[in-house]
Amino acid sequence: MSIIINTKFDFYSDTPKSRDPDSYSPTLRRYHKALWSKPLPNGSNFYLSATTPKAYLHHQPEVGEFFLSSDAIGHTYSRTKRMSHVIEQIPDKEIASFFAICSTIGGYILFPSNKIDNKMTINASRGLNRSLKDRFDLTLECIRQHYQKEDNPLDETFQRYSGFFDLFQNFRGYVDFFLLQDLVNEDYSQINFYLPFNGFDGPPLPSDAEEYRSYKHNVTKFITARNQRIRIATQSTNQPINQSTKLVRLFFN
User: Fold this and answer.
1) Which of the listed residues 95, 113, 115, 236 has the most CB atoms within 10 Å of its CB?
2) Distance (Å, rounded) from C-alpha 41 to C-alpha 178?
3) Contact between residue 239 and residue 19 where contact means Cβ atoms under 8 Å apart
4) What separation in angstroms does the CA of 115 have from each of 22, 70, 157?
5) pTM of the model as a whole
6) Collapsing DSSP states into helix, strand and coil, what is residue 109?
7) d(Cα 160, Cα 154) in Å, to the nearest integer?
8) Is the peptide bond before 16 cis (omega within 30 degrees of 0)?
9) What is the pLDDT of residues 221-234, one digit of tens each?
10) Tens of pLDDT along 26-43?
11) Cα 126 from chain centroid?
12) Residue pair 58/52 in contact by the 8 Å Cβ criterion
């Protein structure tokens, strides 16, 4: 049964104080289940269950067993110590507005949650990797390179979860399934990075207030565009979103 997706809903509003919506927002969990329980590129049904004990979301058996958890893909870095010298130059109102848009459904995605060989999950790896620092545009570039069989900072982790990425057949399939089209160019060959990208050797975090505002602008633009894809598709069909949703792309400046 489909549900109404409110793309303006702030998941912190139904999350206990000092807790993480990824684990504690019941609305976020319902939205993930509704949005991503749909056919895969090969036509198999990727139905997600929210009733498996000790699992956030779970799929079995048509395409194999997968345990999935929510992960935020929009970050303000307002509580990151090494960013404090930049954040203090940005008015609180700007930070609050940025945080609010990152707390909507367009700012969240699913990744496998089960540990393999007692090693880090994708969520943990991308958050701790010094070349990424949780930036989703850089994570998506690693995913693109994984499908191209190229080395990348998350390659070892992605290899452990290759079965998950195989579900989507290729990079285009992954992007279309999770409605990430506004973060890639027309032929899916390049990422629309939040900041100029010169390889993974450069610092991932904005270095000054000007860079931070550019980063904030582009993250906001992407999440807004992704929310629009979700909103239009669910309102027009009253069904979970399918991969054929067509919208005008909102490219980054």
Assistant:
1) 113
2) 12
3) no
4) 17, 15, 10
5) 0.90
6) strand
7) 10
8) no
9) 999 999 999 988 77
10) 999 999 999 999 999 989
11) 11
12) yes
